[in-house]
Amino acid sequence: MFWLHRIFIANFSNRDRRPQRHGARKEYRMKFKPCTGECTDDGLYCEGCGRSHEEIELMSRPVEALVSLYKKMGYENLEDYANAVASSIKYRMGEGHQA
Question: pTM (2 decimals)?
Answer without folding.
Answer: 0.64
